[in-house]
Amino acid sequence: MSTKLDIFSDPICPWCHIGKALLDRALEQRPTHPFVVEWHPFMLNPRFPPEGMDRREYLQAKFGPPEDVVKAYLPVQQTAEENGIALNLDKITRTPSTLDAHRLIHWAGLEGRQTAVVSALFRAYFVEGRDIGDRAELTAIAEACGLDGAMIARLLNTDADADQIRQRDAEIRERGLQGVPAFIVGRTYVVTGAQPTDTWLRIIDDLTGLA
Predict the structure, then answer these.
(1) DSSP-assigned letter for residue 180
(2) Is 85 helix (H, G, I), strand (E, B) or coil?
(3) What distances in angstroms separate CA 95 from CA 42, 68, 89, 131, one per listed residue?
(4) Do residues 63 and 69 lie in contact, with contact meaning Cβ atoms separated by under 8 Å?
(5) Could you tell me which of 4, 8, 139, 150 has the fewest CB atoms within 10 Å of its CB?
């Protein structure tokens, strides 16, 4: 019997990147898991300019002087290192608007390739340091995941589904979600934060009666 797993995340959220990696390990260890996964938009910066911002300027505006930026990201880096998760923050030069990335994730869902695109976006941003606010980069990611690149490029050059993404982002905030990653299991139970793989294994075993 399948169980819906709704995931709210942003592809520039480092804890979302880590949380997905830890969840993926559980799913690999339980290949008969019951989850049917759907990804939903949550923009860390919903009012960001379309062109994004210089990464250093963004971090200093958000956290203050460089030593405070280092302090803010230390738990992220430590968790990634402890779990062997690639995280090359030094490669990131721009903090993008993620409106277009969320549009791409939405379109990928219509083609049954949503998780593949989410994985590719996290890898592009946090491992390769690519600007996932750049429409050429998004088109290349779409093509690599088996989507029609020409169609995605045409859609990105329009406002298609932009209002829907903004509305979905606003609605989940109105329902009380203040940060990501957030996971809703079976449309009922809310799990927040980057949970350890063992936590997900226990949840899966409880759902499948293996505990």
Answers:
(1) S
(2) coil
(3) 15, 18, 11, 8
(4) yes
(5) 150
